[in-house]
């Protein structure tokens, strides 16, 4: 699955994402979170990463960051 997202979502936007287990050939984690900041360089890999946080205290865990290729869909925040 390739991401159709061509620009980074702004802080506060909601993202659904998947992280793949390349050895198994399937998604190992599918989640939803809120963009927590601007894209930042990964300390080792030559990619940008996007910090995210959980939707609220009752939401499931999310990783600290995702790559643009992990994003499935984005939704603007509710005001």
Describe the protein.
The chain is 0% helix and 42% strand. It is built from no helices and six strands. Strands 1, 2, 3, 4, 5 and 6 form a six-stranded antiparallel β-sheet that branches. It is globular, with a radius of gyration of 12 Å. The mean pLDDT is 85.
- Shape, please? globular
Secondary structure: number of strands: 6
Q: How big a fraction of the residues is strand? A: 35-45%
Count helical runs.
0
Q: For the CA atoms, what is the radius of gyration?
A: 12 Å
**Biggest sheet descriptor:** 6 strands, antiparallel
Give the structural class. mainly beta
- Provide the residue-averaged pLDDT: 85
**What sequence of helices (H) and strands (E) makes up the elements?**
EEEEEE
Q: Which bin fits the share of residues in helices? A: under 10%
- Terminal-residue CA separation: 31 Å
The unreliable regions are: none
In short:
With 79 residues, the chain is an all-beta fold. It is 0% helix and 42% strand.
Secondary structure elements and pairings:
Layout: E1 14-21, E2 26-35, E3 40-41, E4 48-53, E5 65-66, E6 71-75
Antiparallel strand pairs: 1-2, 1-6, 2-4, 3-4, 4-5
């Amino acid at each position: 699955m390739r991401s159709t997202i061509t620009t980074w979502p702004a802080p506060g936007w909601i993202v659904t994402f998947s992280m793949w287990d390349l050895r198994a050939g399937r998604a190992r984690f599918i989640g939803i979170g809120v963009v927590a900041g601007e894209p930042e360089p990964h300390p080792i890999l030559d990619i940008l990463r996007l910090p995210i946080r959980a939707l609220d205290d009752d939401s499931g865990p999310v990783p600290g960051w995702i790559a643009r290729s992990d994003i499935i869909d984005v939704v603007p925040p509710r005001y």
